[in-house]
Model the fold of this input.
Amino acid sequence: MRFMVLVKADKKSEAGVLPEKKLLTEMGKYNEELAKAGVLLAAEGLQPSSKGARVRFSGDKRIVIDGPFPETKDLIAGFWIFRVKSKEDAGRGAGGRDKIMHARMLVGDEALMGSDAPPEHYEQTKGFSVSLSIDDPAQAEHVFNALAEKGTVKMPFQRTFWAVGFGMLVDRFGIPWMINCEKDK
Done:
């Protein structure tokens, strides 16, 4: 499957202002990773609309309208085209199976949400654990096992004096978790 990722234009891109050198370097590295992974088909930044035109088709008639165009919300500053196996893989990019951009986990009616941090802002977690209380023992064990995949189990999911199931782990991203099921359904 092919997917196109669009970069929306803004006032800066329309003024011809390039992204900061650091961001351009990071985009270059990202593009290299995508190319090495065999995912990248095309990627380009586009010129401001003042250097472009729109072509409208009406039957055999073509109308060319020169830029600039005032509404930046309708403009594109660049794009990537990926060839991936699924829609889910499109958001992962190169080597993305081991990376999370945004995550949302539903537990009953509650949602736990998180997002990644750019490498220059990442800090290893210390002094806390994310704790989930789940009423259904089978569901609690399923969540525990899913989080433990490629992680480190600190305490296996098992019966304790306070719960029908409790376990502690550090997931593959370094986040410590406690999964607790106090009652049997």
Remarks:
- Residues 20 and 26 are 10 Å apart (CA to CA).
- The helical segments are 11-14, 21-36, 87-90, 137-148.
